[in-house]
Write a structure and sequence with these properties.
Rossmann fold; alpha/beta; globular; 11 helices; Dihydrodipicolinate Reductase, domain 2; 396 residues; homotetramer
């Protein structure tokens, strides 16, 4: 990648596209970052949505100075330095590329795209933009759970040593038979189902934490357990109309890492009892670590170098000032929550655009493209029932 | 108590006194409440601190429109409807009473006061103000951890039945021998140590959850393990100057509840390994419940009415839309943190001042006075080594 | 105590009195000890019960060579070196004293006795017997849960340092309103209820682990929640006959330890959801430890000397060969169960009678008497509502 | 399979082959079964080992009446009804087949065999023997952990419904680089490594609990992380001699179940921090369950039919008399351990041979052969990097 020539003017103003779940999370992030962190506050310049009235109301509530029903307004707005793309996956490419072309930095929701072709175009656009000092970011928010950032640090400190195993599951259960048809079940909007939504996170986390790349994917099994879903609203008395779900409800695969570790990945939306069970475990020669987002303030660590009688799994409450990001929030064990990963990422993006180092590396489009290739390899493995080398995807 | 004659004008503006830990938490609360909850947004009108420049900077960062180094300015400010008192305990009484006298609603940090005498005066002032429609609130934030609010609901639904035991510990460990002298170790500013700071919370929570009152306290043991603490800054080369700590590092006592339950309470700042271990357990004839703030999104529930083969402790992740307050935040198991208890309380205070019901009862000065009497009974029991009836404190 | 003059002939044969729950546990212990441990096998010479046929059947099933309906037979039996007393509390004194007088070693179930007077006589008899080389033991089985034995070791290794807090609960829930009248609810047979049954264990464990003595008890509250219980069998159609329960269902108290720590103890048989929740926690200047019998293979340890970023509660699975007793059983994490504490104690008694050191100290009548005095102090505190010095009990 | 014509003479005497880890576990099982369960006691007739003196000593210690250094003695011994085969995997076939041929019932350690060819011959021998009323059993001991037996029951009660996911890991960590060469690392004796040793258990458990068969295996990755191991004893001063490990240290694969569920299996001996982490999770439409042997007395259950506000993971302590096998042991939450699975299996085998039903189904050679085919399919998938249908193995 060509070296960035950014002159680090900082971040004066943000324009957000999207007023749904992620729109709210990002709004909280941009507003909170300069409170919790000692940083200049970017203006929440403008929010773009579909419906003008709803977008106006969203903007008023969540602190945006202006609103628009035309996202292209943001590209023309000189008070907007960065466009934040928080919309369904198939819109990531056109919006991000347009923004980059307009010279705006872009912070895009994950996964990078719904398709590899889109992801490819985004990466190329990012490379071109980088030559002009324009930056890209992807909201892989879980990197900034303090426990996950600590895992990243601990691997680099040599506390795990040679890695034998990676075990990563992202399990949810909201996709049971009673859940109606949504854009997330439509391949043309979402690309894939649990896979793109959830495996994207844990592939990113595994790469981020271990510092290794996925080199091969095998044995992938994708399953659509619920083939048809009700189309709402259901008219009274009428037999419910249904539509075919065109995405996976779950996708599991086995991977080989560049350092020799064997990894298992599994994403599901029908793993009953798991609401947001984003887990990552790493077993190495010198120690092990495991993370469960449902207890996101905690990291479990096994120190194989401890004397045997005292060895055990240590639950580290990652809320001490010495822990990543924890200094910014509350006293020890005064827990932080889901939104704080976004707040910390916003803070790190502000830092990056001011020429400062983020506390842990920020994913850009290049980095997210590598994750996308792993996701694509898994899809191909599921289709062909053969092992797939990730480099064959990158080059293919 | 005379019935309130509030005409429910809502809450137009807030004035905050205090720019420290609680000042930050309350700032987040007032700013966040109208975002997460569908409520009119009160203005963050003015913040008052000690140093003008620092207070100005605090106000800028945390979203206050104006700042002042004279808290009495708030009393004269027509844009301020409610004064939020977030300062050391000995200042609760003078500031709250002045604000009430000026016709402002008051939201005071817990404990109500450092001394019973102060608490008495505050309750009397609140009674007088109530006659004019002026409201009081106390920031017992843990009532609004969704799990604690759910405990409250479940007792009222009859899921616990006759209560046999209450077990409440609030354990921290920041008060070890290396911690220097602070206002919190000075009885003249703090009233008491771990007791007023931590037992205040769990006595309030026990009363709130069970709906029972503490009638007798016995066996209280207060202990100052660290008798002298370094006065900072320590001059280089000089032998560190120390000062005497005049408060308890821990205080434990046994209580009898109005419904017959036996309760144990323990607060400590030297319980090594516990950072913010605020726990409450209730055992009853039909079931049990337990809460640990270090896993604040979870409630453990035992249903004695379940068939025996399937009975067990059920860990309820209190993040479903049906759980108290959870509807306002993120999807299931996208955890909330410490600050959200404050956000929810701010929202409920806005509701209350608009004539709406809070999701669970809000503590006022009258209610907090009852808690204060229990704390006082424990102090007397620790001093006299005798059982103390709480009603003897109230009347005495 | 006069120094023992035992000539360590080893243990050739055991005579057991009792064929109920403890009779079974002790039978497993005596049979298992020489299997798991590399020790000479004592003969299971004779078991004594009430009903001849039932005792015979018990003996056949549990591996005893002979049986008798007259426990005094054991005193005359030259093949019996040690009499094992596993009967209700009020029989501990007469049987143990008779056995000691007959020159037999005695292993008595806990608590030492139902009353202080009995305990006194037993201690005196043990002292007299000791002069003739006759030994006494008390089955405080939980000392030999590997995790508890490890706590004992770790305190001695200085890993906890100055102790601030001890927190011990022994909670069960089988004593609800539907449980009929049993000898355990009759003060004349049991002495006390949850207190003697359960607090006996945790007072012993707290003394054993900390190496400190309880010097004062205060605030004790004893409660009989279920005043009357059905007398079984209930005749059909008849209104159930009830009898008055004369023992406590729960008893909680606060204690001060000889090293300055503050301790809380609580025993209950109506703590719904807790089946055998025998917990002990110790907080000290250099670290903390906690144990929960319901996860008896695990010890949780906090190392305050670890660097802050890596500090946490470490769950040590106490099944490594380096852990106390674990070498005798199965490979790591192939868990042991309740009975193994008895097996390990039997092994240590065989060792002691062979002149070898037990892995951790064995409680004798002298030691159990000290525990009994703490229990008595708690009963007096509950009665008088005053603090009670333990030394006033010992001497009084 | 031809219907058994056993005339159910009961079990008069057992002959054991093997004096190592499993020899001890089975000895405890045969001795304990008639104590804990109300069953006729089989004689521990004879134990066979390699070294006469050591076998004699083993027999004395663990309660066997006679011993021999020639295992064929058992086949000729009329007091032996059942031969218990507790030796390395490659000896399972010759010994079992010889015993069956001699008309003895056989209880063989798992896995059925080290190779599919051996397993095939054993199954055929078992079929032939069955026609004469001779029975076979395989020691898949974990089926009789009460929690696992309860999972089996709950699936049959319809509490899980349609199964979406099975997740099974068996993780140990004793196989790190410092572990020397053992028979378990030699393919000629062990067949495979972690796979045959550990995946055997979890494949059996998954089949047993779900009642579904594995129909396809894909993506298997086998890994020998530690290629060479020291041959002991190491001579002082000499450079340690090493030998090549010819088995897998870990093997992971993905499976499809006959009912449509997607399953993941993983076995490892280098999963640092996991000593005996045998876990099984099942997610279904009506609920989920998960088991971790390191907390073997507990089962976690999610009831999707509970009202939403009270739904959660329920930790069932499987020690109530209503739970499988728990009635035989101690009171509630007086935990049982690893060995009790063997005791319960011995009891069930005695029952079966007396014409009674076991509490849950006992695996015979036919059943274990089905598990062996899944293991073989995984090995083939690892070798060919292709999906393998299990029926192709059975028939192939």
């Amino acid at each position: 990648m060509p070296r960035s020539r950014t002159r680090h003017h900082g971040l004066a103003g943000v324009g957000l596209i999207g007023t749904s779940f992620m729109g709210r999370a990002h709004s909280v992030a941009w507003a909170g970052a300069p409170k919790f962190f000692d940083l200049p506050a970017p203006a929440l310049a403008c929010v773009a949505g579909i419906d003008a009235a709803e977008t106006h109301e969203f903007g008023r509530r969540w602190g945006w100075m202006r609103s628009t029903a035309d996202w292209r307004d943001l590209l023309r707005d000189p008070s907007v330095d960065l466009v934040d793309v928080a919309v369904p996956n198939h819109l990531h490419a056109p919006m991000s590329i347009a923004a980059l072309t307009a010279g705006k930095h872009v912070a895009c929701e994950k996964p990078l795209a719904g398709t590899l072709a889109d992801a490819h175009r985004m990466r190329d656009a990012a490379r071109a933009a980088a030559r002009k000092g324009v930056r890209t970011f992807v909201w892989f928010n879980y990197r900034r759970a303090p426990a996950v950032a600590l895992m990243h640090r601990m691997v680099r400190q040599g506390r795990i040593g040679r890695i034998y195993h990676v075990r990563a599951n992202y399990l949810q259960d909201w996709g049971g038979p009673s859940t109606p048809m949504l854009w997330r079940f439509d391949a043309s909007a979402a690309g894939s189902g649990a896979h793109g939504d959830l495996n994207a996170h844990i592939v990113d986390m595994a790469r981020f934490v271990t510092g290794e790349e996925v080199v091969e994917v095998s044995g992938a099994v994708a399953r659509t357990f619920i083939g048809r879903r009700a189309v709402t609203p259901v008219r009274r008395g009428a037999r419910p109309r249904t539509a075919r779900s065109t995405v996976d409800d779950s996708l599991a695969f086995i991977a080989q890492m560049s350092g020799g570790a064997v990894a298992t990945f599994e994403a599901s939306r029908v793993a009953t009892g798991h609401k947001n069970r984003n887990t990552l475990e790493v077993n190495g020669e010198r120690g092990s670590m495991r993370f469960d987002f449902e207890r996101m303030n905690e990291l479990e660590w096994w120190d194989e170098t401890q004397v045997q009688a005292l060895r055990g799994w240590t639950r580290i409450m990652c809320t001490e000032p010495v822990h990543p990001y924890a200094h910014a929030y509350w006293p020890p064990a005064h827990l932080i929550g889901y939104e704080h990963g976004f707040v910390s990422q916003a803070a790190d993006m502000v830092r990056a655009l001011s020429g400062l180092e983020p506390e842990v590396p920020l994913p850009d489009f290049e980095d997210a493209f590598a994750t996308q290739c792993v996701l694509e390899a898994a899809l191909r493995s599921a289709r062909t029932r053969r092992p797939v080398l990730v480099r064959s995807v990158v080059r293919g």
